[in-house]
Amino acid sequence: MVCASAMFSVAAFAGDKETLGAPTDKAIDFQRGASSLKYEAISFHNHILLPIIVAIVVFVAILLAICVVRFNKKSNPIPAKFSHNTPIEIAWTIIPVLILMFISIFSFRLLFAYHNIPKPDLTVKAVGYQWYWGYEYPDQKIGEFTSTLVKEDKLSDDQRAKGLYLLAASDPMVVPVGKVVRVQVTGADVIHAFAMPAFGLKTDAVPGRLNETWFRADQIGDYYGQCSELCGVDHSAMPIWIKVVSQADFDAWVASKGPKTAPAAATTPVSTTPAPAGAAPAAPAPAAAPGATN
Hints:
Elements lengths: L1 H13 L21 H35 L15 H30 L6 E8 L2 E6 L4 E6 L9 H5 L11 E4 L4 E7 L4 E5 L4 E5 L5 E5 L5 E7 L11 E7 L1 H11 L37
Parallel strand pairs: 1-5, 4-10
Antiparallel strand pairs: 1-2, 2-3, 5-8, 6-7, 6-9, 9-10
Helix pairs in contact: 1-2, 2-3
């Protein structure tokens, strides 16, 4: 129910041409979600925060309008002499506290969902460098490989059509659909941030510290993000490409990335034919004559 309503509300703002996994031109709402965490985050914003924010803005605007209309110099030439109102002061202290307590119930629930990682089906280590990403799959024995920016003049026609400038990367992080993926994030030099809007992820990559986050993608496709922590002159050149595939395609990708087995070295076969019965042993080589020189 929550997921469906969140997806509907996002589509209503962005229109039918919304791009899955990438920014949509002229859209005004959140990027379309593709994981349970993003659905919950969108629902929290649209159904809890947004109504409260709108109600507060309308209430304050009405109060300002009343003050402007009723208590200006022309309408109220003789101002009141009092300066305090105890009931109102109590109310404007207690009501905001109650509002924040109400918000915290849903906020903490979402926060716990982010931090209580289910049993992972897959672990990927993401390392931020100046200015590219390195990915390692410890469970699959795949060593770190790097993913760099595809420069504008190297973009394919399809990438240009999708508007993937500064989002296209040389190598994706490949994960299977419907599986819990634990992402361990760290930095090698300065602080970076691993951010993927479609999955609702944003985790700092801090040198010397290993942070963790997770996601479970529910749709096959290509998803794009970027480093979202100012990390130097080429901060904008750190795209993140997550490719969600079927389990069979993921297994095939792992096999292609896994260590290559070297062919066995050829050996000379040893003869096992027994010597003929009664054969005389070979005569020893004659000893060199005393005083002989080469």
